[in-house]
Amino acid sequence: MKSFKKIMMTITLLLSVVVSNAQTKDQLKPVFDNYFLLKDALVKTDGKTAASASKDLWTAIASVKMDALKTEEHMVWMKASKDLTTEAKNISETQDIKKQRELFNPLSKNMYALIKTSKPSEVVYYQHCPMQDANWLSKENTIKNPYYGSQMLGCGKTLEIIK
User: Fold this and answer.
1) Where are the domains of the chain?
2) Secretion signal: which residues (predicted)?
3) Neighbours of 23 (CB within 10 A)
4) How many angstroms separate the CA atoms of 114 and 101, rounded?
5) Is the per-residue pLDDT at 140 higher than 90?
6) Does domain 2-119 have CATH number 1.20.120?
7) pLDDT tens digits for 73-123?
8) What is this structure's pTM?
């Protein structure tokens, strides 16, 4: 009977760790997903969709529960969350694609720091536009430059693969 209780306690402990890890990933997933939607709208030079995606990003940022983050993520979040909030809010308040692209660069810098510590479940590519000296994150290795859209869609290179 004691063995059974020990086994049950061990199983309960393991399940709580698994659930905790899932909750942490779920905290940041909407933030990352909405960032990628924003990036895709900028690639398409669609200021209206970019504003909408940025508003959703802003909402996702505000929904993150810091106490559910891992220690390392929490530390980065404490440094970046205020800027992420401001940057997402500012992009959401304009449909001027040029202004959105200017604001996207600092947003991407902060998002890079966050995604690097969170160790995403899927591969993420950290890419660079030499013409703007600006970076962004992408789910695909193919360069689709959000700073120039169709004008210079393939301009850039992958700097880092985040796994």
Assistant:
1) 2-119
2) 1-22
3) 12
4) 20
5) yes
6) yes
7) 999 999 999 999 999 999 999 999 999 999 999 999 999 999 999 988 899
8) 0.84
